[in-house]
Amino acid sequence: MRIGVLTGGGDAPGLNPAVAGVVERATINGHQVIGLKRGWEALCVEDNRQHVVKLGPEIIREYSRLGGSKLQCSRTNPVAENNDRTELVKENFKKLKLDALIAIGGEDTLGAGAILCERGVPVVGIPKTIDRDLAGTEYSLGYDTALNVICDSAERIAHSAESHQTIFFLEVMGRHAGWLALRGGEAAFADIILIPEYPFSIDKLTSVLREQLKASEKMGFEHIYKIIVVAEGSHIAGEEEVRKDAKLDEFGHFSLGGVGNYLKSLLEHEFHHTRSSALAYLQRGAPPSQKDRQTGRRFGNNAVEMINNGDFGYMVAIQHSRLTKVPLEEINKSPSLVDVEKYYDTGRLNVKIEWTDQQK
User: Fold this and answer.
1) How many helices and strands in the chain, by DSSP H and E?
2) pTM
3) How many Å apart are CA 108 and CA 88, to the nearest integer?
4) Neighbours of 354 (CB within 10 A)
5) By CB atoms within 10 Å of each CB, which of 5, 14, 146, 310 scores lowest?
6) CATH code of the domain covering residue 310
7) Are 320 and 45 in contact (CB under 8 A)?
8) Same domain assignment for residues 179 and 238
């Protein structure tokens, strides 16, 4: 059996371990693995010889510890309404003599995979997105590593913020879902956390900051500084998200970024020592954490077993902390958002403190 594997969308820690897991299990089962470079683009061009690479056991050790994607990524949409390349995908699938395809990606990559599977291409999915916003699974590759980067970065920035008594906006990823900001900010003991699910007002943000600063002064702290973790999709009520430019990708998404600097500019007239920093691609480029390496390997192994069982049109998933499979159509229910009422304190603009039953 010849199995194709691709990584689509943005890169994320855990992609290479997942590919290594695919190769590992495929080799045990006597299958051959063909790597398709640059995601769906490999199947959407007439001459894809530069996009195809044979993968064998020798790559497992190297892939397992590397961040990014050795197979490279792109945001090519093979089923775009204005440029549907389904027939070309099928033609290339046959030319490469593939029996099955494993697509590793997020909402867009796996959403396209679900459509292609309905049209006759045997696809199995592996969930990947550092935003952890995919429906149908409790975990997606890259999330844990990104959290570690956020926590580490917040700690480094805090040293500088304390030295200069600064209010520091730390911008992290999260277009629609604020999981990275919420859990990363929680782990970093951020003073304020702003998430896309709760549009805020400048008056509210200013008020919370004033209260925090007064409380710090009252307690006699000599070095007063504040760390505000803000998701890139966070926005002021009544306003749109801050965009880098007006360009749309093939899936119809704007590129977000700059909300931290925007908020800094709005507040610096009142809070003179303000700074901002956007982690951007630093969150994606780190070596995968232990969890992303282990989960990636298991996802890859299980994707091959799903192919052996003929479970096409499904993706590997984690539910109730156990590996399982769910229909790719579950992707259509994405994004999986933060439940504001359950997890977010709108009064403090921060994570809601959870208590045990005894404490309640």
Assistant:
1) 10, 17
2) 0.93
3) 19
4) 9
5) 310
6) 3.40.50.450
7) no
8) yes
Q: How many residues does the chain have?
A: 360
Beta bridge mates, 226: 167
180, 305: one domain? no
The whole-angstrom separation of Cα 291 and Cα 295 is 6
Read off the pLDDT of residues 36-70 as tens digits, 9 standing for 90 and up: 999 999 999 999 999 999 999 887 777 888 899 99
Give dist(CA 241, CA 233) in Å, integer: 6
Q: 251 with 309, same domain?
A: no
**Is the residue at 171 inside a domain?**
yes
* Rounded CA separation 141/14 (Å): 5
Give residue 305's domain range: 2-142+288-333
Tokens read off for 147? 């959290």
Catalytic residue flag (residue 131) = yes
Number of domains in the chain: 2
Judge if 93 and 130 occupy the same domain: yes
152 plus 258 within the same structural domain: yes
Q: What is the pLDDT of residues 212-224, one digit of tens each?
A: 999 888 887 766 8
Selecting among 47, 99, 108, 131, the annotated active-site residue is 131
Taking residues 342-355, report their average pLDDT: 93
Looking at the chain, list the stretches that DSSP marks H as alpha helix, in order from N- to C-terminal side: 15-28, 60-64, 86-95, 107-118, 143-164, 179-187, 202-218, 259-267, 290-308, 340-343
26: tokens are 């495929």
Is the peptide bond prior to 196 cis by the omega test (within 30 degrees of 0)?
A: no
Separation of alpha carbons 102 and 123, rounded Å: 6
Long-range contacts of 205-208 (CB under 8 A, 24+ apart): 205/263, 205/267, 205/349, 206/267, 206/270, 208/348, 208/349
Tell me the β-bridge partners of 243.
Answer: 256
- Residue matched to tokens 């064998």: 56
Distance CA 337, CA 231 (A): 13
53 and 180 inside one domain: no
Q: Are residues 279 and 148 in the same domain?
A: yes
User: How far apart are the C-alpha atoms of 59 and 342, rounded to whole Å?
Assistant: 44
